Amino acid sequence: MPVRMKQVCVAIILGLLAGTVHSHADDKETAAAVTDEDGKYFDKDGTPTFNIKEDGTVDWYTYSGYRRFNSECHVCHGADGAGSTFAPALVNSLKTMSYADFLSTVAEGRKNLSAGKESVMPAFGENKNVYCYLDDIYVYLRARAVGDLPRGRPAKKEDKPEAAREQEASCMGG
C-alpha cells in the first residue's frame, strides 16, 4: 500500500473513532503555516496547509490542488469550489470540516437523504488522480475557504519539490 494511502486510512480510522461529526472551525490564524517539510506546509496541529507569499506566489501543493480540483471535482462542486446545483460550495464546507472528515468523505463518499432531496458524493478512494493528491486538493480548498486565495488559476507558483515528484511516482506507480 503506498505511503499516501496509509496516511489516508489512518486519518479515516481516527475520524471514525472520534465519531462522524467533528466540531471544527478554520480561519486564517488556524490555517497559518508554521512548519515546512520539503515545500509542504503544515499548521500548528500538523494538518497540511498552504503558503502564499506576499507577491501571490503559491506553494507547489496549493497549485497542484488547483489543477487536481479542476480536473476531477469542479464538475459537481463548481469552479474554484464555489458550488453548483449538484454539490455544495466546498469553500464553505471546509470552514467547518476537519481534515479527517475531508479525507473520509472523499475516500468513502457520502449519501445524504434529507428534506426529500437526495445528494450523493461518490467515493474516490480508488481513483489515483484524486487520492494521490488529497492533501493538494485539501490545501487548495483550505486556502480558498479562509479567503487567502482568490478565484482562478494562481498566477505564480513555487517549483515542484523533489519530494512531490517522489510521492507522485510512488503513488501513481511510475
Number of strands: 7
Helix content: 40-55%
* Averaged pLDDT: 83
What letter string, H or E per element, gives the SSE order? HHEEEEHHHHEEHHEH
Signal peptide: 1-25
Protein name: C-type cytochrome, methanol metabolism-related
Pfam families: Cytochrome_CBB3
Keywords: Heme, Iron, Metal-binding, Signal
Quickly list its features.
174 residues, two-stranded parallel sheet, alpha+beta, globular, single chain, three-stranded antiparallel sheet
What's the arrangement of secondary structure elements?
Blueprint: H1 3-18, H2 28-31, E1 35-37, E2 40-42, E3 48-49, E4 57-58, H3 60-72, H4 74-77, H5 90-93, H6 99-108, E5 110-114, E6 117-121, H7 128-131, H8 134-145, E7 156-157, H9 162-172
Parallel strand pairs: 4-7
Antiparallel strand pairs: 1-2, 2-3, 5-6
Helix pairs in contact: 1-6, 3-8
Can you tell me about this structure?
With 174 residues, this protein is an alpha+beta fold. The protein has one domain. Helix content is 45%, strand content 13%. The protein has 9 helices and 7 strands; from the N terminus they run H-H-E-E-E-E-H-H-H-H-E-E-H-H-E-H. The strands form 3 sheets. The protein has a 3-stranded antiparallel β-sheet with strand order 1-2-3. The protein has a two-stranded parallel sheet with strand order 4-7. It has a two-stranded antiparallel ribbon with strand order 5-6. A hairpin with a 2-residue loop joins strand 1 and strand 2. Helix 1 packs across helix 6 and helix 3 packs across helix 8. The longest helix has 16 residues. It is globular, with a radius of gyration of 15 Å. About 9% of the residues have low confidence.
